[in-house]
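This part of the workshop introduces the protein records we will be handling. A record pairs a protein's sequence with a compact description of its fold. As an example, a complete record with its sequence and its structure tokens follows.

_____
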Amino acid sequence: MTTDHDTTFEPFASHAFYREINRELVYRALSTADAEQPTWATRRVVDIACGTGAISGLVVGYWEEHGKVGELIGLDPSDSALQRARRAVQSRFARFVQGAAESLTSLVSAADVVLFCNALHLLEDKGRVLAQVRDTLNARGIFAFNSSFYEGAYAEGTQRFYRQWMVRAMQTVRREHPEMRTDRNAKVAAMRWLSADEYRALLAENGFTILHQEERTADLPLESWTDISGYTDFAEGALPGIPLKVAVPALQKAVREVFEEMQLTAVPRKWFQVIAQRA
């Protein structure tokens, strides 16, 4: 048995709620940078963990809407994701570079804006990367990030949904593959969530001043939960130690069953969004 679905973040990122939440953050970050340095003719924007180009496309869209000119550098460790990003964001202002967030300063310099959307929570050493973001930014440069994987992401009243989902997924695994067990000692950074206060402290420790922060709530339909179940990092975090070819269908089957049993049409989820400035 093999996985024959898209294991990237792209299917989840294609949902309207995802685009709207990230569009709000990206446009606010870019407009903040414009207000800081209104006379700059060209602006360099770095999109860390750009994946298949969802956030990069929003940057180009902002420039087109506002008559701006800029240089966009999308950074991601996955060559296959970058190939898809290049097809999705066909702009003379955009280029895509293979590399990890941990190597940021060796790949990019003198940025005016750095974006890190929906992926900072995946990093083991977040402080190290924030320090590199600071060193990459020009004076008064803007850093914007968000995450829906932090302490507080579960909207009030949704805990039962998550509990039932994981219980049902494990029941499916044990029934169909009784020889398999989850490995809770597996080193899965995505399962180690920080609180909003911890993120704020990390930013301060690494030379940032917070200009704006908020928690946004979006209603996620069933299709989005089945899509995120197919994403490699999520599946490995939810069922650590279980092979993807088993974990993904178990998670997808379980979430469909829980939606039906609980008579749900959507489940609300929170996003923590921050815009900060290099101090």
Q: What stands out?
A: The chain has a mean pLDDT of 93. Residues 10-278 form a domain with the Rossmann fold fold (CATH 3.40.50.150). The beta strands are 42-48, 69-76, 94-98, 111-117, 137-147, 208-221, 266-278.
